[in-house]
Design brief:
- By secondary structure, the protein is of the alpha/beta class.
- It has helices spanning about 15-30, 45-55, 80-85, 95-100, 105-120, 130-135, 140-150, 180-195, 200-205, 220-225, 240-255, and strands at about 5-10, 35-40, 60-65, 90-95, 120-125, 165, 210, 230-235.
- The chain has one domain (about 5-255): TIM Barrel, CATH 3.20.20.
- It contains eleven helices and eight strands.
- Strands 1-2-3-4-5-6-7-8 form an eight-stranded parallel beta barrel, surrounded by five helices.
- α1 (about 15-30) runs parallel beside α11 and α7 packs across α8.
- It binds 2-phosphoglycolic acid.
- 2-phosphoglycolic acid (PGA) binds near residues 167, 211, 232 and 233.
Length: about 260
Amino acid sequence: MRRPMIAGNWKMYKDVNEAAALVADLKRVVFDIDNVDIVVIPPFTDLSDVGEMLIESNIALGAQNCFWEREGAFTGEISAKMLKSVRCVYVTIGHSERRKYFGETDETVNRRIKAVLDNGLVPIVCVGETLEERENARTIEVVRTQVSGALKGLSEEYIEPMVIAYEPVWAIGTGRTATPGQAQEVHAMIRGLLKEMYSSSLSEGKRILYGGSVKPENIEDLMKEEDIDGGLIGGASLKADSFAALAQTTSDVYS
Ligand code: PGA
């Protein structure tokens, strides 16, 4: 069985003080969950402090993005090596907000994935269709293109640690979640594509998270779907109680 993951993407919320308060609360409420990988993904400015607070806890640290070069004259950018030095383990790559507002493409996603893996970190690669694409029955085609573009030229052994997150753009921050059936259909398609591109053992072992308005009220039915292996959570990760409820429900479904 694949080990589930609940990852909280804080986006551009929480300054250092707010981050410290949230992490202190979180540590108290999730310390006894041992069958779920719990991850927090704060803004860059919080990473160093949060990383220290998470030492010897059951919560891992992730970053929201990174540049593909190791170092150099790239004003405003942060490298995977720098993220590793503040105890990051995961990095989300290709979130739809990066694609929409900051020009991220499948090609730049591919370059960033390489930088993350080369530094021994784990990419959480985000894919998902827009509302217009779904309404035009292009979901499968769009997500297939994103996954194959992201993984272009990368070998099976190399991408072994990678996590994928399916996040329909129309469900992110809208309160409108995909039905478990809609999500499962795309997750199964992604798993099938991984089998085509690599092997059944790679595809069977690969964790595929769902993201988009996941809340304590709707997570149970999503986690019961065969090909959904956890959640990438935005809004509901900003409060300790709701994030803990998401991790606890996932833990119960997998017990
Ligand atoms: P949401 O965000 O849970 O607020 O919809 C999910 C995400 O963007 O990762």
